[in-house]
Design brief:
Elements (H helix, E strand, L loop, with lengths): L1 H18 L5 H24 L48 E3 L2 E6 L3 E5 L8 E6 L3 E8 L2 E5 L6 E5 L3 E3 L2
Antiparallel strand pairs: 1-2, 2-5, 2-8, 3-4, 5-6, 6-7
Length: 166
């Protein structure tokens, strides 16, 4: 293993030594560098001396009075197929349907605990399943007070587990 590593390193060194030569082009570039610096020196000194600068008048920037060509709007053809709608995660929060005494919401989770107060520390009074509609009567911090008309259940649930009823 050591012998193979040594042979590989020796071969790599030889390849770089032979392929790395540029035939003396670096020496020519280094010799031409002072000449290039001498050519740019007058420009730098003339910019440093404000007396040698000539002012530019506004007349140098005027253009003729021909108007630019008008851009004609292009009407795009409608795409075939159904109209596109944003994905649910990018849709804005829809407004809930207003009903007498509150707004109508639907359960958006498989199971939802209805509690006696606006906290997970309060007792569970009922359980709802996905799609059941509830009437939201009050809101407090991320919790909403709900009422279910059919069985008379009244309690609190987390608002983030509800969606507006359709």
């Amino acid at each position: 293993m050591f012998r193979m590593t040594l042979i590989t390193l020796a071969a790599l060194y030889l390849v770089l030594a032979v392929a790395g030569r540029d035939g003396g082009k670096d020496e020519e570039a280094l010799a031409a560098a002072p000449q290039a610096a001498a050519q740019t020196a007058p420009i730098a000194t003339s910019l440093a001396d404000p007396a040698k600068l000539t002012p530019v008048t506004a007349a140098a920037y005027t253009t003729d009075d021909t108007p630019a060509p008008a851009v004609t709007p292009v009407r795009l053809a409608p795409m075939p197929g159904p109209s596109l709608r944003p994905a649910p995660e990018y849709r804005g929060r829809e407004e809930a349907q207003a009903v007498d005494g509150g707004t109508l919401w639907a359960v958006n989770t498989s199971s939802l605990n209805v509690r006696s107060g606006p906290s997970t520390g309060n007792a569970v009074v009922d359980r709802l399943t996905r799609g059941e509609q509830v009437l939201v009567t009050a809101e407090s911090g991320g919790w909403v007070r709900i009422r279910i008309e059919g069985d008379g259940t009244d309690g609190w649930v987390s608002k983030k587990l509800l969606r507006p009823a359709r």
